[in-house]
Amino acid sequence: MSDETLPQPSESPEAPAGPYIYDYAASPQRQVVMPKTVPLPSLRTYEAEVKAAVAADEAKWQKMLADFETAKAKAEAEGKEAPKPPVRPVPRKDDNDLKTPWPQEAKDDDLHRLQERLGGKVEEIFEQAGELTCQVSKEAILEALQLCRQDIALNYEMLADQTATHYPAATGFAFSVVYHLTSISRRKRLRLRILVPEEFSPESACAVYPSANWMEREIYDMLGIRFANHPDMTRILCPEDWEGHPLRKDYPVVGWGQRDIAFREDRGGMLERIALQKAGQLGINLKQPKAE
Amino acid sequence: MGVSLNQPSTLEQILITTKVEKVMNWSRATSVWPVTFGLACCAIEMMAAGASRFDFDRFGAGIFRATPRQADLMIIAGTVTYKMAPVIKTLYDQMPEPKWVIAMGSCATAGGPFDSYHTIQGVDKIIPVDVFIPGCPPRPESLIYGFMKLQDKIMTSSLADRYKDIFEEVG
Amino acid sequence: MFKNEEMEINLGPQHPSTHGVLRVKLRLDGETITHCRPMIGYLHRGVEKICENQTFFQGQVWTDRMDYCSAVANNLGWAEANEKLFGITVPRRAQYIRTMLNEFNRLASHLIWLATHALDIGAMTVFLYAFREREDILDMNEAFCGSRLTTTAFRIGGLREDLPPGFEKLVKKFLAKFPSCIEEYENLLNENRIWKKRTIGVAKLSAEDAIALGITGPVLRAAGVPYDIRKAFPYAAYAEMNFDVPTRTEADTYARYLVRMDEMRQSARIIQQCMDGMPEGPVMAKLPKILKAEVNEVYHATEAPKGEIGYYLVGEKGSGNPYRFHVRAPGFINLQALPKMAEGGLIADIVAAIGTLDIVLGEIDR
């Protein structure tokens, strides 16, 4: 498959061997751009980022002041006119600027109740865009789900959605698995989140919420996270013999090239029958008796 | 169909001579029965073409057969995926001769917008196609136009051409 | 079967009553289904993967092709999820137009469901009647956005265009006619002996099972749970609309039919209110040319004709593409209930069970 003349795809892992009719190795669609950052929303990271930004801004201002002082001293020494004092730059504001919702301190009672009941197993709670997020440790997910389902004050009856995200650039974990719970009676939503390293099998949610069955199969199919104690951990969308997990970030959009599908030129299967007859496998005589 | 009898007028009115092939083609072209087989979005437009406003039945193609063994035409209406491809091929092989295929919509024609790991870039990679209809999805009028093109094709087809390979082989 | 043994049969992926390319593996004891296993993925097109490699504005066209019977409802969910991700406020007139088109879409989707479901069970006439009214709705789609099925009706931040001139007249004409059309369908089906025999008591699903399996939409409401996202978590202009959530307690196929018929009446009511209270003003919010995300995640759910459609989006700082795009498709979750509904029933009733779930394989496989 590897041709010397073709430009090699950057950062895309080696394709598994197999019969492919098109070689996509040179296709731009085959290129994989691996993410450099870990876009995992979190109050702690956000606060650290804001703190760092403020510190950087202050350092820049201090440097400007120091520059001004040296320039002033230099000008005085040379007897020139003193430079203007610097003005602290204000961040430019535009009407078109987006008001992206930031992670905020958790105020909702549900999150505090979860933290109170689960104690140290809760890693982080925050609110963002009006949505409640609670990150628990990966071993305690079943306990957290059971609490959400059975606790009368929480009473989240339905698991609306469950999905996962691949973070190849992260250290310490490779996937985040999110559970979107809905409380029909209390009209509330809650997001539970766990961070899972590669080769770790989180506990299946099927025991608490039977609706997790297919969603976990889909996660396994698309991202390759195996769930422990799942009744039927098989692929659901791709065929059983599919290679790789498409929603991982190192999987190209077009996949590993198209597989070979035998093209049948013979419309009625007659040529095949003739070939079979020639080989002596078919007892039908196609030859009509010729007119004398 | 040329009338070439030099006979009294009464007979002229009841007799015509034509080629057997032409009669066969005419009868085939005006009663093409499609197989009930929808894949994706285009299937809804195919249904709409068969329903009240567009009435596909006017062209003799309104009887959607539930089994490929009774059908002449296969309208590939939608995206063909790797998982579905062997099924389509089996269905096509199950249809009796003569049979025709319409690739409806850009997905069946060339993969459409879905250039991804699980889609086949056009159904002509697995079965031969007679008429391609562009559109995403094509309007029912487009399907009817494509179908009429297929009728033209059937009218001009000849048995000798169709089975040339076989005739040569058989001698 | 002379011997007392079970038979395994395969329904689909090409079968006239599986609504697309659904495959169901059945094990039968005589005519009774003892085991049922739906198999999906025959229309898996990799929408999520494609979307993650395209910009936020480009993402809309993929939502059309997921649930192609109700493209507008998918567009609405996508647009609102993005607006939540970026913190965009949509003008009020755009909200009203979105609500109105969404309800038209609900009518179109329910009409397709009625047509195909009745056709599966053997009532061919309804098919022709329902498609007649559906064409009128598609004409309105066409007048608004130039396309019948794959609409791409909305934009992130509002609408691309205001309503076309003369649209009001089309709506008025439709609303004057539509109530009598619903009566027509009901005359054909409500007291039809065959229809009642094929639907009453068939494919039951209790409220507890439905909630445990995550079922939403008319199937859940026919089990007596009045959960409608338009009421529970109002979006677009639904908070200002006055409408009822029809429910039934029988939880069988007939109850689901009645719920959907009542929903169509309520949709017509909402459309009327939108037309009456349509505010003036712009239809598009001020937006930058390129949307660049911050680190943020949203899950936004709306009430599609089939149930709760949820969009889960993760944004990456400075990136114009969604880092993760996931759709909670109502059909995907609802189809999980098929074994529960079909097992223990007759083989003929699985057709009714598939029809009553109102599945579209495009959104199930994505």
Automatic annotation (TrEMBL), chain B:
<dbReference type="GO" id="GO:0051539">
    <property type="term" value="F:4 iron, 4 sulfur cluster binding"/>
</dbReference>
<dbReference type="GO" id="GO:0005886">
    <property type="term" value="C:plasma membrane"/>
</dbReference>
<dbReference type="GO" id="GO:0009060">
    <property type="term" value="P:aerobic respiration"/>
</dbReference>
<feature type="binding site">
    <location>
        <position position="107"/>
    </location>
    <ligand>
        <name>[4Fe-4S] cluster</name>
    </ligand>
</feature>
<dbReference type="InterPro" id="IPR006137">
    <property type="entry name" value="NADH_UbQ_OxRdtase-like_20kDa"/>
</dbReference>
<comment type="subunit">
    <text>NDH-1 is composed of 14 different subunits. Subunits NuoB, C, D, E, F, and G constitute the peripheral sector of the complex.</text>
</comment>
<keyword id="KW-1278">Translocase</keyword>
<feature type="domain" description="NADH:ubiquinone oxidoreductase-like 20kDa subunit">
    <location>
        <begin position="41"/>
        <end position="150"/>
    </location>
</feature>
<dbReference type="GO" id="GO:0005506">
    <property type="term" value="F:iron ion binding"/>
</dbReference>
<dbReference type="Pfam" id="PF01058">
    <property type="entry name" value="Oxidored_q6"/>
</dbReference>
<dbReference type="GO" id="GO:0048038">
    <property type="term" value="F:quinone binding"/>
</dbReference>
<keyword id="KW-1003">Cell membrane</keyword>
<keyword id="KW-0408">Iron</keyword>
<feature type="binding site">
    <location>
        <position position="136"/>
    </location>
    <ligand>
        <name>[4Fe-4S] cluster</name>
    </ligand>
</feature>
<dbReference type="GO" id="GO:0050136">
    <property type="term" value="F:NADH dehydrogenase (quinone) (non-electrogenic) activity"/>
</dbReference>
<keyword id="KW-0004">4Fe-4S</keyword>
<dbReference type="GO" id="GO:0015990">
    <property type="term" value="P:electron transport coupled proton transport"/>
</dbReference>
<keyword id="KW-0479">Metal-binding</keyword>
<keyword id="KW-0472">Membrane</keyword>
<dbReference type="GO" id="GO:0008137">
    <property type="term" value="F:NADH dehydrogenase (ubiquinone) activity"/>
</dbReference>
<keyword id="KW-0411">Iron-sulfur</keyword>
<feature type="binding site">
    <location>
        <position position="42"/>
    </location>
    <ligand>
        <name>[4Fe-4S] cluster</name>
    </ligand>
</feature>
<protein>
    <recommendedName>
        <fullName>NADH-quinone oxidoreductase subunit B</fullName>
        <ecNumber>7.1.1.-</ecNumber>
    </recommendedName>
</protein>
<keyword id="KW-0813">Transport</keyword>
<dbReference type="InterPro" id="IPR006138">
    <property type="entry name" value="NADH_UQ_OxRdtase_20Kd_su"/>
</dbReference>
<feature type="binding site">
    <location>
        <position position="41"/>
    </location>
    <ligand>
        <name>[4Fe-4S] cluster</name>
    </ligand>
</feature>
<keyword id="KW-0520">NAD</keyword>
<keyword id="KW-0830">Ubiquinone</keyword>
<keyword id="KW-0874">Quinone</keyword>
<comment type="function">
    <text>NDH-1 shuttles electrons from NADH, via FMN and iron-sulfur (Fe-S) centers, to quinones in the respiratory chain. The immediate electron acceptor for the enzyme in this species is believed to be ubiquinone. Couples the redox reaction to proton translocation (for every two electrons transferred, four hydrogen ions are translocated across the cytoplasmic membrane), and thus conserves the redox energy in a proton gradient.</text>
</comment>
<dbReference type="GO" id="GO:0045271">
    <property type="term" value="C:respiratory chain complex I"/>
</dbReference>
<comment type="similarity">
    <text>Belongs to the complex I 20 kDa subunit family.</text>
</comment>
